[in-house]
Each structure stands twice: as structure tokens, then as C-alpha cells.
Predict the 3D structure of the following.
Amino acid sequence: MTNDQPAPSQIDTRLPHSARMYDYWLGGSSNFAADRALGQAFEQAIPSIRTMAMENRRFLGRAVRYMAGEAGIRQFLDIGTGVPAAGDTHSVTGIVAPDSRVVCVDNDPIVQAHAEFHAETLTDGDGRGRTVYLQADLRRPEEILRSPALTGTLDLEQPVGLLLVAMLMLVSDREDPWAAVATLLDALPAGSHVAITHPSQDFDPEAMADVVRAAEQGRMTLVPRDRSQVERFFGDWELIEPGMVPVMGWRPEGEPPKDPNAAYYWAGVARKKA
Ligand SMILES: C[S@@+](CC[C@H](N)C(=O)[O-])C[C@H]1O[C@@H](n2cnc3c(N)ncnc32)[C@H](O)[C@@H]1O
């Protein structure tokens, strides 16, 4: 799949896809010319976009470590999981809580192709931990919740860590991502946690407007949202400290960032109350 090798037939390489652009920014090889072209157009508007992608991955790691550590969670549902790469949910749980069960969901065929290729290694050898992949769409949350991949892996009577990292901006307002997220939150028991990051115009409105224009030209949906719109995704769940903050400022490990506003994403983790 490296560079412009022939792709499996269901993968349309003519149009840019967010999973492959993200892979490009993270230095991966599962991307094609159209992905790199739009990735570079985004980079012109926001030169630090690669750092922002990496900051999202770092947040994902911190959020999973928090959920597995302090919150004691052993079941994860990662929607918009992306192309497998260092620091993804499965690799973090493999280190901090190898007995975890993880369901990774994405709607991009290239992510499915990777999951099929790595199917053997996704199942933990000790028989307790397990990672499964589900090809499905956030916009149809009931299908995710009803799927045998999910019901056969997660016990929805026990707390779940739901991850929606750098993916909700790919669903338009018209498609009502708030309703989809609410359906998922309603299905999870008390003690569950949700981690969300979302790009926002609140940090640099002009740069974000340029990115949206580039996305439109590439025929990609990209909807930055302001603070209150992002907060609505958490519903009535309780945001844990420090609340919803710029992604680099969420429980940084080591030295605090010099400028937490340098990555234009809101981030937070919330807990479902009893
Ligand atoms: C920017 S990547 C983020 C990857 C990963 N969450 C991370 O933070 O490293 C967004 C991912 O969401 C997926 N995605 C976009 N829309 C989706 C939808 N409606 N349902 C499921 N996945 C979706 C894309 O295919 C892509 O893999």
C-alpha cells in the first residue's frame, strides 16, 4: 500500500480521505497522491498541522492511560480509529492494560484493509485481552451498538471508554453528530468515560477558514466547531479535571506546553454519573 502502489478495488484513490491524510501527516505510508495534495493544502493554511495530528495521538494515549489507570476501565470503543500507527488505542492498552477488550470502528476501506491484514496480531495471545475491528459509521450508532463484533467483545453492563478523537469534524451539522453521540452515551453504563477532541475556529479563525475552503475544494466534509458546540457532545456527563481545554493542555505529562493554544483542538474526558 506504500505510495502509489495499486490499491484494493474498494479504495478510491482519486479523492482524498481523512484517514489517509492523517496517516500522511503522521509519517505513514498508507496514503495516495490525492491525500498528500490536500494534506499539503491544509499545511499551507496551518503549517503546524502535522504537530496537531501528533498532539491528538498524544492526547489519545493520555486519555486511555487515565481511563485504564485511574478509572480502571478495561473495555474501549474507539470510533474513527484511523490507520494503525504507533500510539493508537490498541497499542496503548497493550502496554498499560493488556487484559482490555477493544473495538475499533472506522468507515474507511483502507482502515479495514489494515485491520484484515493485522487480524492475527489484534487478538492478544493470553486469551483475556482482545481487539476487534468493525467497519461501520458513527452516523448509524445503532448499527455499531447492535453489531456482533461489539456485543461479542464488550459487556455493556460494565463501564466502557469511548474514544471520539479527531473525527467528529468529519460529520456535518446536517447529519446531526450530536444525536449520534447521544445515542452512544445513552447506551453506556454509569462509570463509562468519553474522550473527545475537535478542531475549532476559536484559536485562529482565518487559518481554520482557509482549511475549510481547501477541504471543500477537495470535496471533503470538515466542520470546525466552537467551544459551546463541542461541549454539547459531552451531554450531561461530568467533565473530569481540567475540563474541556486546548488539546495540549489536557493533563500534559512532563513539562507543560509553552503555548497550549498552538494546536487548534478542544479536548476533554467526561464520566457518566451514577
Ligand atoms: C483524523 S482521523 C483520526 C484517527 C484517530 N482517531 C486518531 O486520533 O489518531 C479520523 C478517522 O475517522 C474516520 N471517520 C470519518 N468519518 C467517520 C464516520 N462517519 N464513521 C466512522 N469513522 C469515520 C476516518 O476514516 C479516519 O480514519
